[in-house]
Hints:
Shape: globular
Structural class: mainly alpha
Number of strands: 0
Distance between the termini: 61 Å
Order of helices and strands: HHHHHHHHHHHHH
Strand content: under 5%
Helix content: over 70%
Oligomer: single chain
Radius of gyration: 25 Å
Amino acid sequence: MSSLLKRRLNIAMLFLPQLLITTFLMLGVVIGMVQSFGIIPSLDLTDFTFDYYLKLFTNQQLSHSVWFSLKIALFSALLSTFLGLVVAYFWLQSESMSKGMQIIIRLPIIIPHIIVTLFMMQMLGRTGLLARIFFSLGFDNAQKWFDLMLYNQNAWGIILAFLWKEVPFVIFYCYPILSSISSGLGEAARTLGANQWQSYLKIILPLAKNTIFSSFFIIFMYAFGSYEVPALLGPTLPKALPVASYQAYTHPDLLQRPLSMALNGLILVVGLVCAGIIYLALSIPDLKRLMIQNRLRRRMDETENY
Length: 306
């Protein structure tokens, strides 16, 4: 066996575990999508139908669940990305961060969301630690203040739980590329007269947009598809989509199973649409640049021919 063939075989073996995992995941997605169209032979459901998807938008509670999940995901992703980039800016200005501070920022990343959720319940609940502290300081209405934090339609408790986890994620996801750009083009901009803030806003962030959009998309999709946080901190109504999907899947009436799969299908479609929007947002500047280059080439060719 030649060395080239051996190398290719070794590469194929390295990709084999990933290929097997991806195959099983895709198989589950395909089966779920088929069931979402009402085809489950074991339940005597064999007719293809869009009724379960139509029910998502005609049923008022389910339509509210869609908007509720979108609100959670959008606010969590936007605020996490913004706050993460602000902290990254100050980290860049300090040039170095102490190991203790790095550990403090990394700590929320390694803690599971379920633990963060329980922490929020103990801190922000009506009888939580903060409410008791404010009450002991003489604020008699402290309990009413925290009624708005958890189990409420404003979803601030859910969003705060995601912020506690995802802001550090944005910092460590984006900081390497931000630091690399700052040490090169960012420093050149400052040499030419730009201040720190101008360099960060007009040079560093635009050049790091791919990484920033990626972090935003990861947080958006995780928050949109998360179950445990909205299940424990969210209101009874409206339910987040993953919570509604799980309840439909575990319903004693097995004929609710296609509705659960339709909810999962909607989560998948939203993810694909968001991925497409972000891809277009990143690709449009490149397409414009290519179009301008093509126009210039045509004009140059026409000038030469003339």
